[in-house]
Write a structure and sequence with these properties.
The protein is of the alpha/beta class. The protein has one domain: Maf protein. The chain is built from seven helices and six strands. It has helices spanning 10-21, 45-62, 109-116, 121-129, 139-144, 151-162, 164-167; strands at 2-5, 28-31, 68-79, 82-92, 97-101, 105-106. Strands 1, 2, 3, 4, 5 and 6 form a six-stranded mixed sheet that branches. A hairpin with a 4-residue loop joins strand 4 (82-92) and strand 5. Helix 3 (109-116) packs across helix 4.
Length: 172
């Protein structure tokens, strides 16, 4: 089974690998760079989902030899009590789609202020917490939970949930 992940980010690739392996014993994963066609930092649930869907479609058009294509897009949205962070996972086969959103979590006001100044979430975290390339490591969720939950774990569960239509063919 060949899976194309519409990203070269090792966190996203590992999350897809772990999510798929929980249902399918033998998988081959390839990460590829494609455009999301949304902002570098999506600022709404709608824009984030659109980015994940666009990644899947762009990967499918560019890399046709696969069984599944997966797009993961991280985003943030302004809520009543500040900014929350989350990601959308979209999985496509030749004839079916599955989608799931990760759980969300509140960002600290200092991170929100950096985002308001135009920084992407990963860069804002690196600045505030004196990290380097945190979005390809534990991410904001890892930093804020003292690594009790890391970005791979956050995405893995959503990958598993997005696979529901594929593991339940008789009802989807």
């Amino acid at each position: 089974m060949k899976i194309i992940v519409a990203s070269k980010n090792p966190v996203k690739i590992k999350a897809v690998l772990l999510g798929f392996k929980s249902y399918f014993p033998s998988v081959e994963i390839e990460g590829v760079n494609v455009e999301s066609e949304v902002s570098d930092q999506p600022m709404s649930n709608t824009e984030t989902l659109k980015g994940a869907r666009n990644r899947v479609e762009n990967a499918k058009q560019k890399y046709t030899e696969a069984d599944y294509w997966v797009g993961i897009e991280g985003g943030i949205e302004a809520e009543e009590n500040g900014l929350t962070a989350f990601a959308w996972i979209v999985i496509r086969s030749l004839d079916k789609y599955g989608e799931s959103r990760t759980t969300s979590f509140q960002l600290p006001p200092k991170v929100a202020a950096l985002i308001e100044d135009g920084y992407e979430l990963g860069v804002a975290n690196d600045i505030l917490f004196k990290k380097e390339n945190s979005k390809q490591k534990s991410g904001a969720v890892g930093i804020l939970t003292n690594n009790q939950v890391d970005r791979t774990e956050l995405y893995k569960q959503a990958v598993q949930l997005a696979l529901i239509p594929f593991i339940n063919n008789e009802i989807y």
